């Protein structure tokens, strides 16, 4: 039981406001529990907070104000507080910002909206049974603890509302006011089971044993696309539900597909609770509350679902664990995969990281003995991994404004003729990445960023992919004012679509790119249409690489396999390898065999060769050797410091001041690189400067970083962000 504070007692309340510590208040009338969600006065405003502990007592007692009211929500559990605190320490995030992640339930502070509900009462029998009365009681008994509104209950039983009222008068049915948010339907762990293959069965048994132990453990579940990873971890979910604990599955693109939800429904008889950007505000509030009141056993969500107030979390699955979208890149910079492991370790839950192409981090954690590993080596049923081949673009004769080689075109024609689908993958949105003036050489750029404007021909506009600014395509060059000389350079998916339309005039073409759809709903509908055979040729950016199942797809053509190999990102090789294997995995997911063709100007490049051979262990070994030698993650630690300000002088001054005062970092043996202008040196009118800190794996990096940046007073308008384990270096 959490500590209870008496009325008037001094308590510390952590608010979600940008303050550096908890503030003292007086406990309200009736007292308050530690962890309670409260509304407190802050200056002239009322703000949300959590009772954090006893007051510090270092503020003049007469000026301390009482809590305004205690919100009608379950107090935050000590475990959740510990999780938020450790996550804040790890990511060097101020506690209020962390707390905001944990309180993202719109209307959390609203007075509860009530409604009258009906459930089984204390009296077993009425004075006299009628057919209608029996029906009502039968419905209530059948649905267990579920509550109904008057109308719902009468309709379910097929009787008039007066019958229900009659039973209320007799005490057989209870009438009460209850919060509007209703529990989610109970899931039936044994509703439907598939027969697992031997390999799947072994993996499932290991995960189930983990869940049944009731203790923390982390497992990498590695298996090629279509090998039944989902099937296997759903068994672990079933075991978790049987044990009466809650389960959470994180998926990177949950807003884009209902395939997973349908599978859950088939397996457990009802849908799980959903938590992602596509969910309505009312529903979010319901999920948040029900998760905290045991009214939701199973949540499927995006990364932020990790911050829901689970009462008793027994299993966290991070599907597609290598996916870069698990790293939040603005606001609180956290990696949901790592935070899942943290939360699991605090709460005594099993954590399953599932992927066909695991991150080197997770692979290294297995090697180091921190995670267990389970392998699924073959695809389920008839499906086999696609054959993969390179197309050597040096021996293809292509004009400069075309990107589909004869070899690839031939393969596409063949599939389309057979009624199969072909996917052309190009990870570039828009029409062309660059627009150049052929009179003066000027490249169209963004006014607010050091970035080129990308032509989006469908929308008839230029767009900056950094800040999202758009403008119409000018008729004349903004630099030399000559008209009619602006020309596209290079391909984006829209330009590729033009080439496809010309070359395959008969084929039905679909372009899948996140910017071409107004809403996640529209994109989702398009994906479902394609899965049902609504297109012959699909042109897609990386959104097609993620988990969608297109049964008719048998050919994948990668337009530019070299694209990700340029640049100095330490994960360039790993990312390319993962992306190519993921995209290729889209081909041949049912009985027809798939083929993946990679267009490359450097087919002898080690990454391309490893991708083709599919020798993953060899690839990781080589990658691990290089990273270990360089002392970079996962064999060393890194942190990025990003300074930004409208004032270019100020950012460099602060950057240099930091570099000059390295003592706190030097003490732990860490090195500082920079300051240097960031690769994208200006975004939204703010100049950006980066520093990079490298340390040994065991070095206590966070406290040293905190001490280091504390030395410098930041001018107004200058932002300093610390990115622990950075994934991006732009
Ligand atoms: P992954 O998550 O590894 O991509 P899935 O679990 O989605 O693989 O399995 C791929 C397909 O094969 C799915 O349609 C799934 O229902 C089916 N499948 C996998 N294992 C079995 C099994 N043991 N029995 C029946 N169907 C299976
Ligand atoms: Zn811009």
Please tell me about this protein's structure:
The mean pLDDT is 89. The chain is α/β, with parallel strands linked by helices. It has six domains: 99 residues, PriA, 3(prime) DNA-binding domain (GIY-YIG endonuclease, 3-Layer(aba) Sandwich); 66 residues, Arc Repressor Mutant, subunit A; 179 residues, Rossmann fold (3-Layer(aba) Sandwich), CATH 3.40.50.300; 181 residues, P-loop containing nucleotide triphosphate hydrolases (Rossmann fold, 3-Layer(aba) Sandwich); 54 residues, no CATH class; 89 residues, 2-Layer Sandwich (Alpha-Beta Plaits). The relative contact order is 0.08. The two termini are 48 Å apart. A hairpin with a 2-residue loop joins strand 5 and strand 6. The chain has 20 helices and 31 strands. It has a seven-stranded parallel β-sheet, with helices on both faces. Strands 17-27-26-18-25-24 form a six-stranded parallel β-sheet, with helices on both faces. Zinc ion (ZN) binds next to loops. The site of adenosine-5'-diphosphate has 14 residues, from helix 7.
Notable characteristics:
730 residues; alpha/beta; GIY-YIG endonuclease; Arc Repressor Mutant, subunit A; Rossmann fold; 7-stranded parallel beta sheet; 6-stranded parallel beta sheet; 20 helices; binds zinc ion
